[in-house]
Automatic annotation (TrEMBL):
Signal peptide: none annotated. This is Glycosyltransferase RgtA/B/C/D-like domain-containing protein. The keyword Phosphoprotein does not apply. Keywords: Membrane, Transmembrane, Transmembrane helix. It comes from the Bacteria. The keyword RNA-binding does not apply. It comes from Vasconcelosia minhoensis LEGE 07310. Coiled coil: none annotated.
Length: 488
């Protein structure tokens, strides 16, 4: 009589889960700190920084004199950016102000690096949540780990972790909200609060609350849980309207140029452009190759957890369609407006089986190669070069020729910035000379250390240690392959 072989039931072993999550958070943070940008180039980030400065120094949302913005009824200028990010960044800016006074430097010289570090921490936290959500959807620990690394290093999250845009904050809030919604403990209060904060981070977050409410209704939760994701975001809307009134004297005025957007006629073209366009603000599939595998993960999730898969699909389609009505996009690297969807999409890739995971890893490597130059340069460098030579940057929007796309020119532009940085005296730039621009220095913290009398090699050595330690932490956190029964 043949002997029967018994295979262990594939239960998820969470005994090493804290180690895995800690490795993701610490590893991603250390690797980003090695390339931390000390200064902010874009208009959005600088306005957020200045509002945070005003919150710290004057307890006001107004911009410092001479900082631009939009004039309010009280005669002060106000930023047209969103509410939550300046509040979150304010403690980091306060640290930068203290450091600047200690070193005897202008506050703008030291606060940028601390402000950007807040986005690094948000991205690292989001990376951890990608792994947690993947596990919640039914992934193995190794699959969740690969999915989380794919988000952190294989998509434009790698680029925007070094900026001060609202999208990384919104990405963190949305995946945290979804994770709590899927939690068996039914933490609807925390979920509803995060749905409210999503609106304060960026009004586009308004689509999250109703979708979560419908999900709770489908799960037949108590009435308070069903109404929570509606009532809390409604309070967020009231807070935002109050914020508009305090800034501009009218709750319906946001300062955003609505006249250049909201066109239904070109909506299908822009929707496809967000996914497949090569130009400015488009090309999700090109700038974030691992998301292509999310389709496979979605079909797996729809079989085992159909309601949860429907929530992810509804949020994704909602964001995509909402921004497809919007005609305006600035000097973006890939589809910046879709950054909040990346954690949800990458969490789905965690469901891919072990044999097919090699394709996900390959796409993550391609994504890293595409986005890696932005670690040591400003992604806007190529746009800056075009504008300097008299070209119309707006011609690159969404459906430009692939030869002219930022995707095809970023490596060459990065090498040019590095070459110019090698012959540029960073002290001249920090002294405020008009002969040197931010695009002519290397935008990493250790490159500007000579301004305070510290050699570049000292900082580069520290950056190398941070990078090596981050890689080592991620390597040590790699989970073992979990057992599974053979196919019968």
């Amino acid at each position: 009589m043949p002997q029967l072989e018994f295979y262990p039931i594939c239960r998820k072993d969470y005994s090493t889960l804290p180690k895995m999550l800690l490795a993701l958070g610490i590893g991603v943070t250390l690797m980003h700190l090695a390339f931390l940008k000390p200064l902010i180039w874009d208009l959005d980030g600088n306005e957020v920084l200045k509002v945070s400065y005003s919150l710290v120094t004057d307890q006001s949302f107004s911009l410092p004199p001479g900082s631009g913005g939009m004039l309010g009824p009280d005669g002060q200028s106000y930023s047209i950016r969103y509410l939550l990010l300046p509040i979150l960044v304010a403690p980091f800016v306060a640290i930068g102000i203290l450091i600047s006074s200690w070193l005897g430097l202008p506050w703008i010289s030291t606060t940028g690096i601390f402000a950007v570090s807040s986005t690094v921490l948000l991205t690292a936290s989001t990376t951890v949540l990608v792994a947690l959500l993947a596990l919640k959807l039914g992934s193995t620990k190794q699959g969740a780990y690969v999915a989380a690394l794919g988000f952190a290093f294989g998509t434009i999250a790698l680029t925007y972790a070094q900026t001060l845009f609202s999208e990384p904050l919104l990405a963190f809030l949305i995946i945290a909200c979804v994770y709590l919604a899927f939690d068996e403990s039914r933490s609807w209060i925390g979920c509803s609060l995060l749905a409210m904060l999503s609106i304060l981070a960026k009004p586009a977050g308004i689509i999250v609350g109703p979708i979560i409410s419908i999900y709770f209704l489908s799960k037949r939760y108590q009435i308070s849980a069903i109404l929570g994701p509606i009532i809390f975001p409604a309070l967020g809307i009231l807070l935002y309207l109050t914020y508009n009134y305090l800034r501009f004297g009218n709750p319906l005025i946001t300062g955003q140029p609505l006249s250049v957007g909201l066109s239904a006629f070109e909506m299908p073209q822009r929707l496809l452009g967000f996914l497949f366009g090569f130009g400015m603000g488009g090309g999700l599939i090109w700038y974030c190759p691992p998301v292509a595998m999310a389709v496979v993960g979605f079909f797996k999730a729809s079989k085992s957890k159909p309601l949860e898969a429907a929530v992810l699909a509804e949020i994704g389609l909602g964001f995509l369609m909402l921004h497809s009505f919007w005609h305006c996009c600035g000097w973006d690297w890939g589809p910046r407006f879709l950054v909040p969807l990346l954690p949800l999409l990458l969490a789905l890739t965690g469901l891919i089986d072990y044999r097919s995971r090699k394709w996900l890893v390959a796409l993550c490597i391609v994504g890293f190669i595409v986005n890696a130059p932005t670690l040591v340069s400003f992604y806007q460098r190529y746009y800056w070069e075009l504008e300097a030579t008299g070209h119309q940057v707006w011609q690159l929007s969404l459906w430009t020729n692939i030869a002219d796309a930022p995707l095809s020119n970023v490596w060459a532009a990065t090498f040019r910035q590095i070459s110019e940085a090698m012959v540029t005296d960073v002290k001249v730039f920090l002294a405020g000379s008009d002969s040197v621009t931010l695009m002519q220095i290397l935008p990493v913290w250790w490159w500007i250390l000579p301004a305070i009398g510290v050699p570049v090699w000292c900082g580069a050595t520290v950056a190398g240690l941070l990078l090596a330690t981050g890689i080592g932490v991620l390597w040590r956190g790699w989970p073992k392959l979990e057992p599974s029964a053979p196919s019968i």
